[in-house]
Amino acid sequence: MNSSLRARRAIIDVAFDQPAGLLALAGEAGFAWRSPGRTLVTAGVAARIPAPPGPRRLERLARVASSLLAGAGPTGAWGGVGAEGAAAAAPLVVGALPFDDLAHGELVVPALILEQAPGGPVVAMSVAAGVDPPDPAAMAERWVARALAQPAQRVARESARPAEARWPRRIEVTPCWERPGWRAAVEAILAEIRAGRLDKAVLSRQVVLEADRPFGRAALLGRLAARGSGAYLYASGGFVGASPELLVARSGGTARSRPLAGTVPRGAGAAEEARQLARLRASAKEALEHRLVLDAVAGGLAKAADLVEVAATQVVSLPTVAHLATEVTATLGDPPPTALDLLALLHPTPAVAGTPREVAVDLLARLEPSGRGLYAGPVGWMDANGDGEWALALRCASLAGSNARLFAGAGIVAGSDPDAEWDETTSKLRAIFEVLST
User: Fold this and answer.
1) Burial, 24: exposed, middle or buried (Cβ in 10 Å; 0-12, 13-18, 19+)?
2) Which of these is catalytic: 106, 187, 210, 245?
3) Is 192 a catalytic residue?
């Protein structure tokens, strides 16, 4: 990690079918990301950046990552990449981090990155520590040829076909929590709220699937892309999902966040959906849940900003649920903190933990029967300039052969009903279960 990073870039000639696009090359390892502004897939590791457990682990991680990337830059031929392409392919740290400060985490600098800007060429970048990196065009050519020949990639490219045209899986479902235990945990949280020690806690559920054949990561990414499941598609090793929630993004001196909280199921038909959306807009309970998250995010960004602007709250509809969402924009001070610095200020927000933060996290650690792992942690990337995007790892699954572990949570505030919150998590779990089951 003490060796400086060196990078080379080149444009490669490759075309992809939609909707999976570049994600069809993701395979079963490496990191993959698609947001409204950036799509990339990676292979190999040029450097690892550990995030050891303990208090302030994200602050330490931000310092180490910034130091490592500070000396990174291109060497050798640029392969005809213009200024726009060069900026889009800047060296990156990528990955998913655990929710809990007590869990070990890691980010990596990929050895090879393929990226396609909207409407632009595919740029390949190779990275090495302390030595000149290999030719990125040759590396990318071998990767593309190998990936497109794999059955899993053919499945990914065909994943937009109707479900009835595919062979459905036989799946055994094992909940990690039964409804009576859930009710008791919600009541315990509500008791803390009534006692004045807590305003909100986000209780999570896990479900384990055992299928008759392995789950394919590339195929799952393709189906999520086809379905429009979330603005932020991601895969880090076997951890895959489609999150609707931007934790923080930084571009130069501007930071953005888009907290989501307050949820209703979509409804079976147009009339039922309209009733549910009207309930979401009118509910004092859902408004309270959203306001607690929004205030925490705006307050966190204000610690590093000269100006924080909060837009009007909107309703965001996803395949199985609808949320309240609010865009927050911050004009950062000079010099601006990096994307990882901002992440350290915000995580975990009341959207995935609760408030007060320490009280909620301690209570959840006692109540939840299983550790969260990467669920509800940050997932994303940061470049050498300190720009980056970090989403919350929601609507996700952890894949291991023919096993998959699914995660979902619900915010408990004054007025929460245990059965209604259980049903909310069921709707959220359904979003990823439906794409896994075909």
Assistant:
1) buried
2) 245
3) no
Tell me whether residue 245 is one of the annotated catalytic residues.
yes
Q: What is the 3-state secondary structure (H, E, C) of the chain?
A: CCCCEEEEEEEECCCCCCCCHHHHHCCCCCEEEECCCCEEEEEEEEEEEEECCCCCHHHHHHHHHHHHHHCCEECCCCCCCCHHHHHHCCCEEEEECCCCCCCCEEEEEEEEEEEECCCCCEEEEEEEECCCCCCHHHHHHHHHHHHHCCHHHHHHHCCCCCHHHCCCCCEEEEECCCHHHHHHHHHHHHHHHHCCCCCEEEEEEEEEEEECCCCCHHHHHHHHHHHCCCCEEEEECCEEEEECCEEEEEECCEEEEECEEEEEECCCCHHHHHHHHHHHHHCHHHHHHHHHHHHHHHHHHHCCEEEEEECCCEEEECCCEEEEECCEEEEECCCCCCHHHHHHHHCCCCCCCEECHHHHHHHHHHHCCCCCCCCCCEEEEEECCCCEEEEECCCEEEEECCEEEEEEEEEECCCCCHHHHHHHHHHHHHHHHHHHCC
| Single-letter residue type at 398 | S
Q: What is the pLDDT along the chain (438 residues), one digit of tens a residue?
A: 556 888 899 888 877 666 667 888 888 889 999 998 889 999 999 999 999 999 999 999 999 999 999 876 544 333 333 333 443 346 899 999 999 999 999 999 999 999 986 677 889 999 999 888 999 999 998 888 877 676 544 444 444 444 444 456 788 999 898 999 999 999 999 999 999 999 999 999 999 999 989 998 988 888 888 887 678 999 999 999 999 999 999 999 999 999 999 898 887 788 888 888 999 999 999 999 999 999 999 999 999 999 999 999 999 988 888 899 999 999 999 999 999 999 999 999 999 999 999 999 999 999 999 999 999 999 999 999 999 999 999 999 999 999 999 999 999 999 999 999 999 999 999 889 989 987
Q: Which residue is associated with the tokens 């999976």?
A: 20
Inter-residue contact 200 to 292 (CB < 8 Å): yes
Between CA 65 and CA 311 the distance in angstroms is: 32
Structure tokens at 23: 């994600």
Query: What six digits make up the tokens of 115?
Result: 């990226």
- Going by their DSSP bridges, the two strands 246-251 and 239-243 should be labelled as unpaired
* Type of residue numbered 158: E
Looking at 115, 172, 200, 309, which residue is catalytic?
Answer: 200
Structure tokens, 253: 């001196």
